Amino acid sequence: MEIKNVMIVGVGGQGTLLTSRILGGAILDSGFDVKLSEVHGMAQRGGSVVTFVRYGKKVYEPIVEEGQADILIAFEKLEALRYAHFLKKDGIMIVNDQRIDPMPVVIKKEKYPENIVQKLRDDFNLILVDALNEARKIGNLKVFNVIILGVMSKYMDISDEMWIKQIKENVPEYSLEDNLVAFQIGKDFREEII
Amino acid sequence: MIEKKIMLGNEAIARGAYEAGVRVSSAYPGTPSTEISEYLEEYNEVYVEWAPNEKVALEVAIGASMSGVRSLASMKHVGLNVAADPLFTASFIGVTGGLVVVVADDPGLYSSQNEQDTRSIAIAAKVPVLEPSDSQEAKDFVRYAFEISEEYDTPVILRTTTRLSHSQGVVELADRLEPEIIEYVRNPQKNVMVPANASKRHPIVEENLIRLQDDSSTMNHLNRLEIEDKSIGIITSGIPYQYVKEAMPNASILKLGILNPLPKKLIEEFSQSVDRLVIIEELDPVIESQVKSWGIKCEGKELFSLLYEYSANMIKDALTEEKVEIRTKEEAPVRPPILCPGCPHRSVYSVLNKLKIHGAGDIGCYTLGASEPLNVIDSTICMGASISSLHGMEKARGRDYIKNWVAIIGDSTFFHTGINSLINMVYNQSSGTVLILDNSTTAMTGHQDNPSTGVTLRGDISTSIDIKKICEGIGVRSVREISSFDTKELEKALKEELEKDEVSVIIAKSPCVLLKGVAIKSQYFVDKEVCRKCGLCMKPGCPAITSDDEGLTEINDTMCNGCGLCYSRCPFDAIKLTKSVIDRL
């Protein structure tokens, strides 16, 4: 199998580390070699964060480089734009329909780019998910990233059993039910492109 | 069946220490090294602690080694500067039980104030260095480091980098060794480093290094020859090895696991077997300059940068015909790290910003007050330097010069090296004002306890060391404790203390909003009917508050932590407590 390259990008504090833990465990359980590279420390404080995931028969480099990602998961729209050049030409981009203004935008030094989704949709297979809204329906905003994992699971060679095992191992007992519901919602997600 | 696990590089180092039979570990948190101690905590066989700084941590490990057990100290690269004093003499003393110092470099400055190469310090300190290149090696090399430590009577540095420490890879686990505790025998010639003894130890240190260098060429568990296409041969180590494998799968490679001393014979043989020799190492030309000094022709920094991290694309660009085609990068506003919504530092900084006070800064989350819109931190050097550098300004330019300056330091950093600086201020009759931002944790590195929290790394209740009493004990006559969110009282205190002609300390206290149970289960919203668009709530730069083109503000309910700073600033009572907080619970 060719090496598969996945990236998870977002804003520090959005739970990219939990997502990568679940993802890494599920990949390992499926019998692949895997490397993940993540960001800790200062950048995590509301900054732009990125997690690289590579898996296949034998993985060397732990990072995904420009133009190499098969799948890019963006927890925030501006971050999707920022890292778009990492995606392969026909790559899949799953974007959470959330806007978080970076400080230069908050203080009106810069403008939040308009029409990000339309712009990226021209070049990539883009799936837009309003995961926060779906999470709100479950009654637990924190599970939005597991909804996105559910959407993503359709594009990876990993069985549901492996995903669910990892969710069980990585989320606290009291929110397990919410997370399992969230994963299913993601799996059932069909985007209505307007 | 061998158990396989996916492990963070730092988790693998912790596992390696456990398997090597380590009994004592001491560290000060610092990205990217912090998780080593946090994962070691999972093993009851290992005593593990947070020390107030890296010098203390290394000395604890040296003491443990002297008493006959295997011991570990871990730190980030700049932490080794703090621990340099014991390190440079520990190499003279050598070890009784094995002693390994894990040092994490940060090429690319993800979370550091500088970019430095630990290998250069290790050479100066006469300490051997091993460098793993993935999680499996990170685990295995800890044991090898202990073997070298005991065989060659020396502390050993295990060097890692951010990319290794914070990458996860597959690791095969092994059982723990239980090395016998070595009986104590008094040996002042070895352990008491007075000049007469140290001068006799020095030649032994040099002999041991030469013996290790001779032996290292046959240490096949550390160094690996991968002979393929001989038109190009690459010497590399650590994470860059992975980039080389990716970029040039057919090149001949000498992958080094021991970086000090370098396996000279092995390198000489390899260099003779290839047509062109290239050395690929991040940061300083440590391998390259030594190889060149042996009269071997090679290329290195003329092709590759002294700065930041490398990548496979970078190597392809420099050494192959393959041109990497990349889509144009989209224009996007930068997203720098910021203080979290609800952060108590923001509240304190809103007062400093209002009073136009300059901050001599320090190392911690509060360094983020350097950027817009707060703009209150004017300098950042190293741990503890806020207090001492403010003192230097006063001595250079007089008391009036610092009437609109404060030193800003966090609780953990104060214990790290701030106390000495405060002693200097009192002793040398400074008039400066020190602001200690006590958020009851070491926040930036991910919330580690420290002497003021009174909780140990294992979570045991200990003595909580009172910052106010320390300041008073040092001789500071004016010490006040004020809630970080009491902006009126803070403003008053700052004005009064800055006027005084003596050292004063203001402790602004409020726990980090990310600590468990701190974020109050309430939130605020803007009543758009009442909002007059004055923008006062926006001034402290809370990321949860945004405004539309007309200036009407809004509070994001997925981000608001309910600190109430905006509420207290609104002159029109337009900011109100949200009634429904159900979906946050």
Number of strands of chain A: 6
The H-and-E topology of chain A, N to C, reads as EHEEEHEHHEHHHH
Radius of gyration of chain A: 16 Å
Instruction: Give, in spatial order, the strands making up the sheet with the most strands of chain B.
Output: 3-2-4-5-7-6-12
Helix content of chain B: 25-40%
**So what's the overall shape of chain A?**
globular
Report on this model:
The complex is a heterodimer of chains A (194) and B (585). Chain A is an alpha/beta fold and 194 residues long. Chain A contains eight helices and six strands, in the order βαβββαβααβαααα. Chain A has helices at 16-29, 77-83, 103-106, 116-121, 131-138, 144-153, 160-170, 176-188; strands at 4-11, 33-37, 48-56, 69-74, 87-96, 125-129. A six-stranded mixed sheet of chain A has the order 2-3-1-4-5-6, sandwiched between helices. Chain A is globular and about 50 Å long. Chain A starts with a strand and ends in a 6-residue tail after the last helix. In chain A, 57% of the residues are buried. Chain B is of the alpha/beta class. Chain B is 35% helix and 18% strand. Chain B contains 20 helices and 23 strands. In chain B, helix 3 (54-66) runs parallel beside helix 5, helix 16 (385-397) runs parallel beside helix 17 (411-427) and helix 17 packs parallel to helix 18 (467-474). Chain B is globular, with a radius of gyration of 27 Å. The two termini of chain B are 43 Å apart. The model of chain B has no long low-confidence stretch (mean pLDDT 96). At the A-B interface, helix 1, strand 2, helix 2 and helix 3 of A face strand 1, strand 8 and helix 11 of B.
